[in-house]
Amino acid sequence: MPLEDAHGRLVSDLRVSVTDRCNFRCRYCMPAEGMPWIPREEILSFEEIERLVRMLVGLGVRDVRLTGGEPLVRREFPALVGRLRAIDGIEDLSLTTNGYLLGAQAADLVAAGIDRVNVSIDSLARGRFFEITRRDALDRVMAGLDAIASFPQVSPVKVNAVPMPGFGRDDVLRFCALARERGFQVRFIEFMPLDGDRSWRSEEVLTGAEVRTMIEEVHPLAERPREPHSTARVFDFADGRGEIGFVNPVSEPFCADCNRLRLTADGKLRTCLFSLHETDLRDPLRAGADDAELGRIVRDAVWRKELKHRIDEPGFRPPARTMSAIGG
Ligand code: SF4
To answer: Which residue, of 86, 115, 281, 318, is most buried by count of CB atoms within 10 Å of its CB?
Structure first.
């Protein structure tokens, strides 16, 4: 029996946060001093992640994305990729990273069996990159992007950018050049109210439509039909040189056919990015629950999956957990 919620949606896409720690301090995610990290003993071990992912694949999960914090800061991370790759039934195993450690780990990740990689880069201008991430690391991130792009079996390679206040035409055109000249799939993702210092304001969100208008002043675009469950509206450059996408959770929510589930680094199941409730899987697992019992807990939680997020609706409250402890 597939994993279904009360709204008739089937769940098949799992995002696994393997750590809440990160080597960057992006302004839209966490304060300069970082966050109070989850104590190590509360973090799922590789064995526990493998066990839970295998159980969830048995319930119908087919796509697994590994996130953080920054997943590559977790020691021996490629070994986890190898463990998950060995699970029958996973059709797509992907990773979201800030790219800083990608150069060093690219070959091991590919050998372990990663299928796709998304690299988060919010500006291609060195100064602005530093301003946003509080790290002077653009060159190293770009070298990481080049490293993973040198493996043709890892495809597509996507570049995710969150347009923050001050993001302008020059920034947009730099990303267009990256898509057009290098063939990376660039995605502009709207700023969401999951920031560590709770300063999010909807009026500060640069919407996908606004970014698209900036692009179309220079490059005409042609929209592709939307794929089921897709978070992005994808466009081809009309002259055929590359594609670009817009993930608009604030201005154009895509919850109606959401098939996503999240597992946090400390073993909590989140049925929505903006869930105000979580379901604990770690403690039952550590207490000896078998897969049938864990499966019942998961099915019950998924049945109560939220219909949609309620950003900007009266009474909207962001979740207690911030993006760095949920993962993309
Ligand atoms: S906000 Fe929640 S329901 Fe909507 S697409 Fe994201 S995870 Fe799915």
So the answer is: 281
